[in-house]
């Protein structure tokens, strides 16, 4: 299942729903991405981020996320898969994205979960603009994200 | 056809969406871009560096050679940064 | 943090606690292992499992889990790490284990989480006995688990 | 020294724990096992296939050559299957 929404989600409730009543699931892997309060790799050297706004392309976003989920289900024997992505203004500490996959075995759950976030990062039409004291700046795509997605091609 | 702009392409063109009737003979994304660049200095600026512009035709990723026709939804945006 | 306990845990609450008040966390990766209702890889061919009992070595278990957590923190720049493992009688669908790791970046969170479960599976002194209609059988160690752990050596 | 058995080693020896005063000259896990095997047919059976027996001395993994001495806690068990 995929969901694109402005409002926050309850990761715990999503996780609980994932395993409820299932006795063929051996493992659930879940990843939650959060807004950090600095730009770059070094918290001390990074510019403080006051907030960010996530813009998206309604319609195409759902279409791409559905394709990503379908691809994951094709590649691994999953019991379930879930992608939730927010848009709009978010503050440091806020949840941005949740991806999760469950399977009889942990390998499939881990790999599918990683695949979901890696592909989403390069294929789902979202754009972040960071609000700092020095003004607003569109986040540039990271080469590391491209590399991470290429592993799955 | 409907043309959409996102992120800084929206800022540069000054619009989120416009209806475009491109000149006859416009059959690809590349040709559409050539036409869009003539519309305003903002449009020209938005398409100045095509290596940082991505395109989707009817909500699927495409390239400069992807066919476009009347009635299509063509979107231009920078490389995505979600997740 | 590590916890070894007979009682169930609330994965959602653990996950929530993991990110609470933290603005330097970019991602949380979490894995939950559950009791499956069949033995082997093929649900149709597998012997149905009615329940299982997890025996452990009190004292050494905590010691090994603490060592595993410390090793993960040494290898990756983690904001937090958590391992919860249950013992005693468990039924299909019950939670067995939770491992989680958070970091500024998703790579570290994913890798540390995977490392925690892979190492735990070959180093933490737990033993499963499965209760089936044909009687009780001690689960044999899987070569695949040994291989998974060796990747981290 | 205190000797502990877990999982099927506990079933085979028929006990979870026993106090052992091994013969003089017992300084390694391997020598301790030789002594334990003489205690009962169940003990002999438990240690019949050493490739599936693991040992911890004072709660750290060891091997046949690991030293043991009075006061140690020595545990025998099969390869672990948690998680």
Protein architecture, described:
Chain A has about 150 residues and is an alpha+beta fold. Chain A has a single domain (about 1-150), classed as Aldehyde Oxidoreductase, domain 3. Chain A contains 4 helices and 8 strands; from the N terminus they run E-H-E-E-H-E-E-E-H-E-E-H. Chain A has helices spanning about 10-20, 60-75, 105-125, 145-150; strands spanning about 1-5, 25-35, 50-55, 80-85, 90, 95-105, 125-130, 135-140. In chain A, the strands form 2 sheets. Chain A has a 4-stranded mixed β-sheet, sandwiched between helices. In chain A, helix 2 (about 60-75) packs antiparallel against helix 3 (about 105-125) and helix 3 (about 105-125) crosses helix 4 (about 145-150). The longest helix of chain A has 18 residues, at about 105-125. Chain A starts with a strand and ends with a helix. The model of chain A has no long low-confidence stretch (mean pLDDT about 90). By secondary structure, chain B is α+β, with helices and mostly antiparallel strands. Chain B has a single domain (about 1-75), classed as Roll (Ubiquitin-like (UB roll)), CATH 3.10.20.30. Chain B has 3 helices and 5 strands; from the N terminus they run E-H-E-H-H-E-E-E. Chain B has helices at about 10-15, 30-35, 40-45, and strands at about 1-5, 15-20, 55, 60, 75. The radius of gyration of chain B is 12 Å and the shape is globular. The N and C termini of chain B lie far apart (about 30 Å). The chains are: A alpha+beta (about 150), B alpha+beta (about 80). At the A-C interface, helix 1, strand 2 and helix 3 of A face helix 1, strand 2 and helix 3 of C.
């Amino acid at each position: 299942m995929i969901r694109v929404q402005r409002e926050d989600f309850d990761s715990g409730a999503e996780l609980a729903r994932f395993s409820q009543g299932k006795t063929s699931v051996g493992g659930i892997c879940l990843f939650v991405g959060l807004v950090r309060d600095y730009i770059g790799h070094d918290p001390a050297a990074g510019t403080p981020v006051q907030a960010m706004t996530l813009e998206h392309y309604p319609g195409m976003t759902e279409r791409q996320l559905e394709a990503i989920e379908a691809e994951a289900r094709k590649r691994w024997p999953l019991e379930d898969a879930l992608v939730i992505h927010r848009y709009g203004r978010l503050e440091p500490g806020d949840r941005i994205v949740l991806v999760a996959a469950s399977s009889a075995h942990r390998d499939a759950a881990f790999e599918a979960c990683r695949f979901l976030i890696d592909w989403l990062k390069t294929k789902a039409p979202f754009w972040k603009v960071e609000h700092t004291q020095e003004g607003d700046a569109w986040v540039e795509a990271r080469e590391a994200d491209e590399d991470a997605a290429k592993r799955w091609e | 056809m409907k043309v959409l702009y996102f992120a800084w392409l929206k800022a540069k063109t000054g619009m989120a969406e416009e209806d475009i009737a491109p000149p006859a003979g416009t059959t690809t994304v590349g040709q559409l871009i050539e036409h869009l660049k003539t519309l305003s200095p903002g449009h020209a600026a938005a398409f100045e560096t095509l290596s940082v512009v991505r395109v989707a035709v009817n909500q699927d990723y495409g390239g400069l050679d992807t066919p476009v026709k009347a009635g299509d939804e063509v979107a231009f945006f920078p490389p995505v940064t979600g997740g």
